[in-house]
Amino acid sequence: METDKKMQTQVELTDSDLSEQIKAVTKDSHVRAENTELMLAYQRGNVSLTQYKLLLCSLYEIYQALEEALDNNSNHPSVAPIYFPLELARLESVERDLEHFYGQDWREKIVVPAATKIYAHRLRQIGEDNPEYLVAHAYTRYLGDLSGGQVLGRITQKSLGLKGGEGLSFFSFPGVSSPNLFKQLYRSRMNSIELEEEERKGMLEEAVRAFELNIQVFDDLQKMVSVTERESEVMHTTTRNRCTRHTSTHSKLADGEKLTARSLQIQTSLVNASPLFRMVLGICVALATVGMGMYAFKVVKKCFQQS
User: Fold this and answer.
1) At residue 172, does pLDDT exceed 80?
2) Rounded CA separation 224/219 (Å)
């Protein structure tokens, strides 16, 4: 495969640390990830509530799988050096944000695209079969979030008009006092991992896969955003049309009531007319009132049938 050949060439030509090798082989994928529609919206500082909520749903699924796999393999010789649950774990933060936006029953409301489920499945799979590959995924996710967390958090807060830190827990790393110093420590720990040649090659391939999985998630999320926003617009239009029809119905009923009132006024003004005339007039008014009532009933019935 062309990607495999490209990575193999770069590894052979680059005698450097694991963190630098991962950075080199994922350079193109990194650029592609930054140019997905979802990430471009962030770069433009124009993030919708729908985008952010659906992103949180996917992040929950991804970090649930990743952190479960890391916890289960925390003593593995490749995982132990980069296992920092107190400093980096994101699952509880995402849960707080989801509860803020969806309520206490958020687990029953969240939805994720197929690409997210594929990503989570891959994480659980390597957690069982190749725990050393978790290093590539942890590096891609955690250091990416730590690097852009502050900036993305401010963009989200400004775009959505969020007050304080509510709904923004994901971007906060209270256990990391200095992101730059921590990233240096993390890379140093990564570079200390002892790997056979085949293991190193496999980890580099997994790093590229991690970026590709993230790109697919971003693309699927944006498709879901578009569908959700279209459905919301259709509902809004339907509600507006119903209100217009009901307003029209009320107007017709009001006109009928005015006509009846005018008939009653005529009846009152002629109260002193001859007995025969009053009797005939009373019958006419009664018939008119009954007719308007039947018309109003038909209009209301038709309106609710259309709704």
Assistant:
1) yes
2) 9
How far is residue 167's CA from residue 99's CA, in Å, rounded to a whole number?
8
DSSP label at residue 141: I
Please name the helix (run of DSSP H) or strand (run of DSSP E) that holds residue 171, with its range, or none. Answer: none
6: left (phi over 0), alpha (psi -120 to 50) or beta: alpha
d(CA 83, CA 227): 38
pTM, full prediction: 0.72
Helices H, strands E: what count in the chain? 13, 0
Q: What is the pLDDT of residue 2?
A: 44
CB 122 within 8 Å of CB 211: no
The string over 202-221, giving b where at least 16 C-beta atoms fall within 10 Å of a residue's C-beta and e elsewhere, is bbbbbbbbbbbbbbbbbebb
Query: Helices marked H in the chain — which ranges?
Result: 2-13, 18-25, 27-34, 37-43, 49-72, 85-88, 91-102, 114-129, 134-138, 144-160, 179-191, 197-269, 275-306
Task: Say which amino acid occupies 207.
Answer: A
